[in-house]
Amino acid sequence: MFQIGHYQSNTQYLDEESQTIKGYNVDVVNAVCQLAGKNCALVWDVYENCWTSLPGQRSRGGVGLMARWYDACVGWTNTWDRARTLSFSDDFEKPVDLAIWVKPGGTIPNWPNLANAKIGFLDGWLTDQHCLDRYSDTISNFDPNDISQVIHYPREDDIVAALQAGEVDAAFISVRPWNSEHPELELFWQAPENRCVRGGLGMMVQKDQFELLTWWNAAFQRLTETSQYDDICERLETAHGDQPGLSAEYVCV
């Protein structure tokens, strides 16, 4: 049984008509499980139950994955922090870029000095405060353990509302079409490289899930060698093209 959420992208989204999760990641899971002869089930749950982060603390495995409510979480980025606690399958999706965002016309006073600046982060996302701290050669006076400087929000809509209300000066989140096309977000600074990842996106599991990773990786490798994988990549813009998202060139491995 695999956990899956939705962030309204062509890789993972809630289809309002069928009330099911669809997208590239779902297509990959279905194809891999079929090739492996496995009876897989997808269950929806909030992302924090796979991986969670709180102000003033190190990020950690979420209760759902650690308590084995499910065997894996679908479509999670392989980061340095997560890899200390969990294991990952081979990548089936390329990693994203990272950036600091402000409200339209907004700025960060004294940039790149972040003294007294309040930065918004999303709970459990790879773009947490410890990820931003990896850019200390660019930014200064940022303390990932300072809860007056690090403000967390559960959802993207919440962080956008916080920017508009002046609760935070900026937000550190990934570069995705949802952000890039949002009328209330403006790109302020894009990281020249993603220093927070070890790889792309895959299945995130507990470190003792050797058997699952073995059959999954073997079946996914077989899938990529077939025309079926080409069809799955094409579906990003055909079957799932009504959702915002990147083209196959930036998603498929």
TrEMBL record:
Residues 12-234 form the Solute-binding protein family 3/N-terminal domain. The keyword Signal applies. SUPFAM superfamilies: Periplasmic binding protein-like II. The lineage of its organism: Eukaryota, Metazoa, Echinodermata, Eleutherozoa, Echinozoa. Keywords: Signal. It comes from Holothuria leucospilota (Black long sea cucumber). This is Solute-binding protein family 3/N-terminal domain-containing protein. The keyword Signal applies. InterPro entries: Solute-binding_3/MltF_N.
